[in-house]
Amino acid sequence: MQQVGQQARKAASEMAVATCAHKDAALRHIADQIEASSAELTQANALDLDAAETRGLDSAMLDRLRLTPERIAAMAEGCRQVAELPDPVGEISDMSYRPSGIQVGKMRVPLGVIGIIYESRPNVTVDAAILCIKSGNATVLRGGSEAAHSNQAIASCIAKGMHAAGLPTQAVQILKTTDRDAVGLMIRMPEYVDVIVPRGGKGLIERISREATVPVIKHLDGICHVYVDADADLAKAKSIAFNAKTHRYGVCNAMETLLVHQQVAAQFLPDLCAQYLTHGVELRGCDLTRELVNDDRLLAATDQDWGTEYLAAVLSIKVVADFASAIEHITTYSSAHTESIITENYTTARQFLRTVDSSSVMVNASTRFADGFEYGLGAEIGISTDKLHARGPVGLQGLTSEKYIVFGDGHIRV
Amino acid sequence: MQQVGQQARKAASEMAVATCAHKDAALRHIADQIEASSAELTQANALDLDAAETRGLDSAMLDRLRLTPERIAAMAEGCRQVAELPDPVGEISDMSYRPSGIQVGKMRVPLGVIGIIYESRPNVTVDAAILCIKSGNATVLRGGSEAAHSNQAIASCIAKGMHAAGLPTQAVQILKTTDRDAVGLMIRMPEYVDVIVPRGGKGLIERISREATVPVIKHLDGICHVYVDADADLAKAKSIAFNAKTHRYGVCNAMETLLVHQQVAAQFLPDLCAQYLTHGVELRGCDLTRELVNDDRLLAATDQDWGTEYLAAVLSIKVVADFASAIEHITTYSSAHTESIITENYTTARQFLRTVDSSSVMVNASTRFADGFEYGLGAEIGISTDKLHARGPVGLQGLTSEKYIVFGDGHIRV
Q1: Cα–Cα distance between A363 and B269 in angstroms, integer?
Q2: From the list B240, B340, B403, which residue is nearest A360 (CB)?
Q3: CB of B67 closer than 8 Å to CB of B89
Q4: Cα Rg for chain A, rounded, in angstroms?
Q5: In whole angstroms, what is the distance from residue B109 CA to residue B16 CA?
Q6: ipTM given for this complex
Q7: Are residues A119 and A178 in the same domain?
Q8: B364 CB within 8 Å of a chain A CB
């Protein structure tokens, strides 16, 4: 790992000054290589799939692991899309003259070496690598053992693409070893690694955060709330509440708890709940919800429900006395990922925006919009629930930092 | 510490929504309290000074500890200056409509609870507290035992000022205990503390960084370089090199190593060195420097010199073969704080700006400008040599984060 770190550090200094043209050329070459290597990728992936089946991995896991022709095409397309994005490196902003006569501003620069630790999906290998390349960083990728063959086949495409563009191949190192010790070393090499981005289950991320001496950009749960206010347009509320839960279940920006102001609960909940139940969503409500809806299929929510990220067709529902109770519930149980208020009231909307301390706070929109592509970042390496550095969807900018630059004409401090 | 943490977390949620008017009123009340308590502050400080003398602290330490009438007036003035700064909290930027129809942007928000660990200077107590108040954060301050009485007297002024403005007094908690265990607990309470800012010697900062589970904004050494290029205007170079070393010695943005391109070294160095020596600066040069200058007082630099932050009237000087050698020296020995190039060459200046990976990179200006006030931040809580989150001088903005905000009109993902 020491050697990997040294190589990454050296490559990072070359990547930091690589031109936009070179980096984009590399991304397009990688896309070509992926398309040209479709057969090899499928073959390598088959080895991983066989091993996974032998080990008895479940079907969801197998699905994440599988490289289909569509997924291979999507990986190549992803490379070309990132090539189209503007280069964040070297961007200068906020230049202004100071009373002393110096001109001060900021220049955007790469972070250096980014360590990415992830689990089974091989497309993460490409996504993560290309964002690091575009943002002028070097990266060390450590994927899951289930995807080892697929990842090495992808590594070969990336190396060829980098080589073709004249960029250092060691700017993207995909570890061959998948043993746990490698992770332990990687997260404790601040001299070689500037930041760790773990992608995977909560257990993985918690373990890494606890043990790392390198800073970690983390994404823990997505316990997202929609709060239907007394002044909500109930048609908008119904459509958003339904979308936020049912558009996709296994994603971090899906709503897990619906909060409804008591003034509108009787009018709002029965219809909506019927719609959820017809759609196969399991409902768990507070006492008042169950009274108002009066359907045997509506289960009783326990305290544990409010703090659970279901990532499934399950929703907890709570009727709240007022705005303050809604905020209190969110403050207590939210994972600070995304919350949305449905209201037509200007003052209430402003209060919600100011008070709720989550990475995305919305008014009259589905939580499902909390996403790098939807926000216009072009791509994302994850969604940060941290407050420092990057918060919310992390795109190219989240993989960079800013340094101060100063222009003088011989200026000295007096 | 558990209780301190809980109180801080609660106060932080109140501070986050405090209006600009309330926060500024608190700062002005604190200024009034400090002025009105001049006698009490001096008395408390005398107790600390007596104890320090008894314990045999050196005169530099005693000087840092001393509260003079001027320093007390400056603390009050600092409060009023921060009150004049614009409120960073709630600033909205980059709002734009996306193809989906949602409007997305960012809102600046406080970080939450900021832990500050520092050593003897009691004015840091006020500086740190007021920056945290203005940026809508709660803070837990842990000063050095030498300043315990002074800090408690200051704490009383702050509490009275907060109370007078109707803000929670527990938003600024100045720990009475000065034992080391308190620090150990504070840096390991991520549930209550969002970021730690250590201010003090390298030993303190390294220990905290190693042991903290809370993110740390750190400032290690300031080994700053001035590089005099072959195309430098030597009059500017002389004035800047002299200023960067001699304007103040014990500061992190003072130059510690002067690099000179060999083409101009013979013309440039003898005069400048004579000027330094007359001024009482001890010089340590490379072989070539000593040949060119030929003065017995010019000592031989050892390898250790290049990596030393003197914080004193000492300068190391090295003649380099070319631009690339200068960059290599900086990459090897710089602490990534501040570096300045002196050149009239457009291309060389651009290369230096792009290549040097320090928190401040300058052209034709003295490194002494690397400072929050000089950069127009209004105040600073420290200078970060980290890359993540805050880099360079950290002002109010560095104590905040941004969350995404989304406005819709009933928008759902399709």
Answers
A1: 64
A2: B403
A3: no
A4: 24
A5: 7
A6: 0.91
A7: yes
A8: yes
In whole angstroms, what is the distance from residue A309 CA to residue B115 CA?
Answer: 31
Q: Is A143 helix (H, G, I), strand (E, B) or coil?
A: coil
Structural domain of residue A137, as residue ranges? 2-218+386-407
Residue B375, domain member (yes or no) = no
Taking the C-alpha atoms of residue B119 and residue B121, their distance in angstroms, rounded to an integer, is 6
Name the domain count of chain B: 2
- Shortest alpha-carbon distance between residue A92 and chain B (Å): 11
Q: Can you point out the beta strands (E) in A210-254?
A: 224-228
Residues in B closer than 8 angstroms to A109, CB to CB, are: 357
State the sign of the Cα–Cα–Cα–Cα dihedral A361, A340, A121, A153: negative
Question: Which ranges constitute the DSSP H helices of B247-405?
Answer: 262-278, 287-293, 303-306, 323-333, 346-355
Tell whether A247 is within 8 A of chain B (Cβ).
yes
Three-state SS at B89? coil
* Tokens describing residue B174: 């100045």
Digitized pLDDT (tens) for each residue of chain B, 414 residues in all: 889 999 999 999 999 999 999 999 999 999 999 999 999 999 999 999 999 999 998 888 898 899 999 999 999 999 999 999 999 999 999 999 999 999 999 999 999 999 999 887 898 899 999 999 999 999 999 998 899 999 999 999 999 999 999 999 999 999 987 667 888 999 999 899 999 999 888 888 888 888 888 888 887 789 999 999 999 999 999 999 999 999 999 889 999 999 999 999 999 999 999 999 999 999 999 999 999 999 999 999 999 999 999 999 999 999 999 999 999 999 999 999 999 999 999 999 999 999 999 999 999 999 999 999 999 988 788 889 888 888 999 999 999 999 999 999 999 999
Length of chain B: 414
What CATH number corresponds to the domain at position A236?
3.40.309.10
- Burial status of residue B247 (CB atoms within 10 A of its CB: 0-12, 13-18, 19 or more): middle
Q: Is residue B412 part of a domain?
A: no
Q: Is some CB atom of chain A closer than 8 A to the CB atom of B98? A: yes
